[in-house]
Amino acid sequence: MIEVHVTAENPWPNRVMLRDFSATLFLMLACAVALAAQPLQAWIDAAPAGSVLRLPPGTYSGPASIAKPMVVDGGGRVTVDGGGHGTVLTIRGERVVLRGLTLTNSGGSHDSLDGGLMIEGRDHVVENNVIENVLFGISLHRANDNLIRNNRIRSRPVDSADRGDGIRIWYSTGNRIEGNDIAVIRDLTVSNAPRNRFIGNTVRDSRRALNLLFSHRTVIAGNVFDHNSTGVVALNSDGLIIRDNRILHAMDASGAGVALKETAAALVQGNEIIHCAHGIMADSPSNPLSRIVLVDNVIAHNVTGIYIYGVKGGHLAIGNTFRSNLWPVTIIGDGDPLNDFWFANHWDDYQGFDRDGDGFGDTPHELYAWADRLWMEFPAAKFFRNSPVLELLDFLERLAPFSTPSLILQDRNPRMAPSVPATKAVIP
């Protein structure tokens, strides 16, 4: 056996010494057995704790489990087939590294969370794997401080409601989900799991790109969410950072780029939210001191740019660019909409001037509810928006008001030119 000091392939410098078992030795032990027929569990059981298991190319049978610190490296040429039963591979304990494997053919039970990979314990690294033709992709249950990066995850080509989650995180914290290519799944779900980070992932052709439930202080940065029914949905998840993401084509009838409900103290900054039914949907935090802050976002080509329901707590909207939305802002509900604070946003329908050349309009940008009040208060009336009758009614209201219109918002310093999204900062 060869003593191997920690290198770049070992994610725990100075923590463990790993023994590298030659593939030739294992082949000598199993020369009479075809690789395609070999159970992966036998190879795992034969490897001591702290070892590096470099599997010879081929197909191995699962399900299998790992419960000791070790590295399993398939070199991109190893497939583990679950045989249509349960979860293909389960890792427990601490400090397991899994790389270069294809996990496929899990069971089909939603109740038992059958999938490609189940993770429990802490300090695991799962990288550069392919997980496909499974129900759930990766599930983390009471799993903390793990790194999930650069994996390709696919569920099954069935209706989205019948798929499993691409990644499911439950009662787990401190995990970093980074650089994964995820598509054709149900959702990416985070439940009762605070302080996780989603960095630089792509989620497409699914239902909800990211669904947060009671998961406070989550960081969502630098991701691309494309052609999903909804982008980011957060329920009772305070202290979110949603930054520098591209959220595109969330055109489900009730879909949104970002939807925040009963969520306070959230920062939504530097995102591009384009071609969605609603760009940003948010209710008002119960605590007026815990506002939702919208800064430097590009909100373009949506049916509704920002949809706010309930205006008790208010929101801060600063430096955003509104461009080519059918309706830039809709505000409904009890309370005073002027509790919201709008400053230095760019509005493509602003009709004022900048005589002093400071880059800001000389007069405030104001949005009133004219005939628009009909569809704001009665959502079903949206069907008739832009119809000749409502266009005429809106024109007459503005020309000779027969009622006092309601002021929806006022931006005292509208920006004349579109805001440039914030330069991508170092992601925490």
Provide an overview of this structure.
This protein is mostly beta strands and 428 residues long. The chain folds into two domains: 21-170; 207-370 and 405-428, no CATH class. The protein contains four helices and 40 strands. It has a 26-stranded mixed β-sheet that branches. A twelve-stranded parallel β-sheet has the order 5-7-9-12-15-18-21-24-27-30-33-36. The longest helix has 12 residues, at 388-399. The protein is elongated. The protein starts with a strand and ends in a 17-residue tail after the last strand. The model is unreliable at 1-36 and 422-428 (pLDDT under 50).
**Biggest sheet details:** 26 strands, mixed
Structural class: mainly beta
Number of DSSP-assigned strands: 40
Oligomer description? single chain
Low-confidence spans: 1-36, 422-428
Total count of helical runs of at least 4 residues: 4
Total of domains: 2
Q: If you compute it from the alpha carbons, what radius of gyration comes out, rounded to the nearest whole angstrom? A: 26 Å
Beta fraction:
35-45%
List keywords for this structure.
single chain, elongated, 428 residues, 2 domains, mainly beta, disordered C terminus, 26-stranded mixed β-sheet
Briefly, what is this?
The protein has 428 residues and is mainly beta. 7% of the residues lie in helices and 41% in strands.
